Amino acid sequence: MPKGYQYKTKIEKRMSRIQSWLIGTLALIALALIGWNLSNLNENASSPIVDDGHPTYQTQEATSFVYDPEGKLAYKLVADDVQNYTETKLTWFTKPILTTFAPDSTSETPTWTVRANKAKLTNDKMLYLYGDVQLDSLTDASQLQRITTENATVNLVSQDILSDDQVTLIGIGLKSVGMKMRGNLRNKTAELIEKVTTHYEIPNEQPNP
Fold first, then answer.
1. Is the model's pTM score more than 0.85?
2. Kind and range of the H or E element at 62?
3. Do 116 and 147 sit in the same domain of this protein?
4. Which residues pair with 135 in a beta bridge?
5. What is the CATH number of the domain that holds 104?
6. Do 181 and 126 share a domain, yes or no?
7. Are residues 29 and 64 in the same domain?
8. 205: in domain
9. Which PANTHER family does the annotation name (predicted)?
10. Which residues pair with 93 in a beta bridge?
11. Same domain flag for 68 and 15
12. Residue spans of beta strands (DSSP E) within 68-143
């Protein structure tokens, strides 16, 4: 056999071994990359949903009706804008107007209207009111007619109300101001706490002719 042919055969064998080594190395790299990608997919699949600060849903000029377990209307909530956040279980309202109804009434008699610039409703039925809070009684027989403050919290289940800001109460023939308040809308009661001042209005009596 010619020497040149033997030399060529040795080169081909060496090239074949190099190609086999390269193919094996590339195969190992490919397997490593596939495993890395699969692990990333598993990590992403098990990662919790990140709250990016955007509402889950949003609507404008919304009206909500809430009924008690007996099917009676408990309250109505109207707002210019509603934003719900599923992750934090919060709902925000712009320019909310809450109307409460008497629980023992068969004709859905409204008892109070509650207004504010903003409101936040939590999952445990607590309504936090922010900015220019005003509550007006819709019952003529109630001695307490109006409550104004900057911020307040209303428990929509018990209708307890509290405020740690300055509060003004207006009733029949009186006006009281205090630094805090605790009360209940259903019972039509409110108690001012700390630095309370009260002004009474005496109606002018008409002279007898």
1. no
2. strand 57-67
3. yes
4. 114, 147
5. 2.60.450.10
6. yes
7. no
8. no
9. LIPOPOLYSACCHARIDE EXPORT SYSTEM PROTEIN LPTC
10. 82, 119
11. no
12. 73-85, 90-94, 97-101, 110-115, 118-121, 126-137
Between 6 and 65, whose confidence is greater? 65
Question: Contact 167/181 with Cβ under 8 angstroms?
Answer: yes
Q: Which domain holds residue 16?
A: 8-37
Give the tokens for residue 76: 């109505």
Residues 17 and 102 in one domain: no
- pLDDT of the residue at 54: 82
Mean pLDDT check: name the lowest of 71-85, 93-107, 120-134, 151-165: 93-107
**Structural domain contains residue 181:** yes
Distances from the Cα of 97 to the Cα of 39, 76, 170, angstroms: 51, 8, 20
- From CA 14, how far away is CA 176, in angstroms rounded? 103
pLDDT mean across residues, the chain:
80
Pairing of strands 144-155, 160-163: antiparallel
pLDDT of residue 42: 41
